[in-house]
Amino acid sequence: MARGRTHDGGASRRRQSRPQIHCRHRARDTRLLAIVNGIIAAAELGLKEHDRLALAKRMMEWRLVGRRSSSNLPGLIELVVSRSLVSAGMVAETLKIAPRAAVRIIEELGLREMTGRGRFRAWGVL
User: Fold this and answer.
1) Fewer CB atoms inside 10 A, N or C side of the chain?
2) Does the pTM of the predicted model rise above 0.85?
3) Mean per-residue pLDDT for 14-36?
């Protein structure tokens, strides 16, 4: 199987958080129950992640009050919610603005810098 080209839908998180005792059991019913419990756990993690992103989006949208209609902040909010990390170059390319302007609106929005670097920085929502 090609590594990195497939999406596991949160199954790796399930594997990290749940014990592997029943996944190799001889009884088919026990294995099936372990698989179903894993799917349920992955779905619960997905719902928690969705709620977290929805709350973050709502909080970022509060910063739009009083802005001009031509502001680039709504586009940045959509980009940040749709991606886990964004860079200044990615924001500049998507919103068709200068990289320095991208850094400025990222700082206005109050995104968290994830890399801890001075150059080639990336921001995200926690």
Assistant:
1) N
2) no
3) 70
